[in-house]
Amino acid sequence: MHLLVTIDDARVQEEGPAYAEVLAGIKQTGIQVTEVVAATPGQDNEVVGLDTDSPLVAPMPLPWLQRSKIVSNLVRDVGRPLPDVVLCLGSLSANVALEIANAVDCPVIAECWLASHLKRPALRASQVAGYVTASAGLASALRGRQVGDLVVTVPFPVKLPDLNHEAADVIPSIAVLGSELDHDSARCLLDGIRTVVETIPDLQICLELGTRTGDPTWKYAESIGLLDRISSISNASNLGPLVSQCTLTALASCQQTARSVVDLAMARGSVVIQADHAFLSEAEREQQCILLEATAEQWAKSILDLLNDPERRSRLGKASREHVARRNNPDVVISTWTQLIHEASKDVTYPFANTGTSGP
User: Cys-Cys link to 350, which of 95, 149, 169, 299 (CB 3.0-4.6 A)?
Assistant: First the structure.
């Protein structure tokens, strides 16, 4: 079995470490993996893949006039055996995945991870053998729209840390993730944190800002006097083990329906707080703190209640750890990926065999 994976730079930045672990696990099952990564104009350094020292390289998206030549060269470089399945990770890699699949006559599996993918996935249902997502809520919504026969939920692999996260002398901290995706919601959340700081003045903030220069969320944090307690990062996924040690994890945006760094935070017992939205699963509603109304007042109240109630925080943290231990077990995750690849190559339709992981 041969899997060809296309992944763009944005998805590498968002979930590179998690997918590197996935590809390494797939390779250990005996499946051959070939990576196609994005070409960077003027790039002189050697390109390195997620789990491949010498991946294939292509412009993403493919330029219209040169796509035929580029795809022919890619297929030649892939060699034999030709891919049995193409996995598309990242929106900009979609036409690369589709063109290669058409050239070698094999099925495509496309990843969905954004709320907008419910209506506008990277590839249309008629173009793919199936969709894969780490979000059980998004998978359920996709099935409800009947976007295709095969919609599979495969969580990110997470090894449960063996540590005591709730040490009594730890300074309280909160990780704010996704602020670059929704600046209005981020400002509302920061207003709530400013109220919390009046009661808990030693609260520390880890703020994810993205890579954009002059981020308005940073400027707003400065304007309300929070900068002296903020540690800013551009990408929480690349610092998952560090970020996940925060006492609380607040999601400023619901656009990304699943993130490996959130799963890792839950595995460490960090309580996740986020606003209610349509793609939350029942398990997430039970094990996280969900705001019915994401106002500054509600953010402040929820954060204060959790920081002042270590018993409730411990109870939610324990439930989160148990959930991740069941859902994100690396062996089960890799087994599900392997089944998905084999099912897709045989053009088998839903329901997927592993109902425990891929079911609603």
Answer: 149
pLDDT digits (tens, 9 = 90+) for 302-323: 999 999 999 999 999 999 999 9
The CA–CA distances, whole Å, from 330 to 24, 160, 317 equal 11, 10, 20
**Structure tokens that stand for 97 in this block:** 């995945």
Classify burial at 223, counting beta carbons within 10 Å of its beta carbon; exposed 0-12, middle 13-18, buried 19 or more: exposed
pTM equals 0.89
Say how far apart CA 94 and CA 108 lie, in whole Å. Answer: 10
What are the Cα distances from residue 243, in Å, to 122, 231, 334? 29, 10, 25
Compute CA distances 78 → 2, 59, 104, 108, whole Å: 10, 16, 11, 16
Which one, of 78, 55, 76, lies nearest residue 2 by Cα?
78
Burial of 213 (0-12, 13-18, 19+ CB in 10 A): exposed
Distance CA 245, CA 115 (A): 27
Token pair for 73:
């060269």
**Sign of the Cα pseudo-torsion (332, 335, 340, 341, in order):** positive
Question: Which residue in this structure is represented by tokens 């940073």?
Answer: 218
Residue 272 tokens read as 């996740």
CB-CB contact of 172 with 203 (8 Å): yes
Partnered with residue 272 across adjacent β-strands are 249
Tokens read off for 59: 């412009």
**How far is the C-alpha of 65 from the C-alpha of 144, rounded, in Å?**
38
pLDDT in tens, 84-130: 999 999 999 999 999 999 999 999 999 999 999 999 999 999 899 99
Query: CB of 272 within 8 A of CB of 295?
Result: no
For residue range 30-72, list pLDDT tens digits in order: 999 999 999 876 555 677 899 988 899 999 999 988 889 999 9
Type of residue numbered 210: G
pLDDT at residue 64, as a whole number: 86
First to last CA, the chain: 28
Query: Contact at 8 Å (CB) between 345 and 85?
Result: yes
Question: What six digits make up the tokens of 322?
Answer: 């148990």
8 A C-beta contact, residue 15 and residue 155: no
